[in-house]
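Input sequence (470 aa), recorded before submission:
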Amino acid sequence: MGQKKLAKKMMTLGLCAFVLTGCASLTGTTTKKPAPIALNVKKVVLDNGLTVLIAPNPKLPIAAYYTLFDVGGRYETKGTTGATHFLEHMMFKGAKKYGPGEFDLLIEKNGGATNAYTTNDATVYYQTIPSNFVEKMVDLEADRLQHLLLEPVSFESERQVIFEERKMRYENSPDGFLYLTMMKKVFEGTPYGQSVIGDVEDLTALTRDQMMEFFKTYYAPDNAILAISGDVDPDKILPVIKEKYGAIPKSEGLAQLKAKRDDPKNYESKAKWGAEYSFYATNPIPKFAVAFPGEKAGTRRAFVLDVLAFMLGNGGSSYLAQKYVRNQSPMLTDISLSSYNLRHAGVFYFNGELMEGQKIEDVKTKFLADMKKFCDEGLDARTLQKTKNQIMSQAYTAMKTNAGMASTIMMNEKIYGDYAYGTKEMEIYNSVKESEVKKECHDILVKSSPIFLSVWDKYPKNPTALVESK
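Predicted structure, token format:
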């Protein structure tokens, strides 16, 4: 349940948030600016701090219901890793009014669907439901926010489910294991270096009392954003929301606790840049990652790095795909480039899988040498405009759905404090210059040293010693 979107994000570009904009021409090198969309969103902040965003869309009798809690894996400390994700699972196991099994059953019986995901920075619950079920959805969500059971039997059974999920996502998945290892090495000594699913030792030791304390601390209206998009009338649903959510108290001391946890000193990585790591995994063909320090979400540099990653690595026609995969003598079966912008830090990284018969040492040597050429060979004005058009097209497509709209305004509200920030985002993307992209490319790929990681079933089952670059 919790890792579906997270797993997808691991392997794709992570734009800060979807952009709210019209779409420019998708051919040629036009520089015409897109016309921004005028958003029809009603925003209300309840007395207890709950931020409510409602985007009416009466085209079809359906709605998307999204709830974000501003808590993720980075708020955990040693001994409680995995608590956020564990709690996400337990939120589906019953509350006071709607007991075990009733939450999912009621939604599914009425033709809806529900799920959730946990990341380093947030936990999100979402439903797609008929519009005549929205009032009941308000009652369901308000019930589990106030009266979560954490029933002991299901608590223990769900612990075993999470152990199996961890095996599936990490131990038995070379891609997931490579990603987790990269995050641990890049963000060594920081909250981002922890597993979102949790360490085995912590998951084994977590108690119901610890989980309840975590729930009472972070699952509060003043730490949440509710976004509804679809066939809903704000004037009719807002009184229901105020009735069901309005009496839920704020979390005392939460602001001070979060300020302490968000101290910039906590995010000063102890990463050993220029180092190489190799680990045993179950893949018979070597896979690798090349990671550089990235940028936190929301800065101009983060937008430029998004564009750079898109220009070099997006799609089968990209520079990287053509150079290493789609040619007469391919070196790799797959190559991708991602800029992952987190709240307090970021990572800029390549992922690749070798073509059968290639040697990891040969590929590593060639790839690291080739990187010095990427900025000159793979970046030009036409590719920059193509990238801007693709970003706009993807954003515009997402905004056509209720889920896309609810998710977008929710994330913009979280990151920027402004649900309509997408228009500003698009202005920033459109203003990115070729010279800026090339400068960042040289600063990262030419001037700095990466961490190189590889996984393969021919490596010893114990990780090799760290090899420092000379």
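Checked by second reader. The domain at 4-8+31-263 is CATH 3.30.830.10 (Cytochrome Bc1 Complex; Chain A, domain 1).
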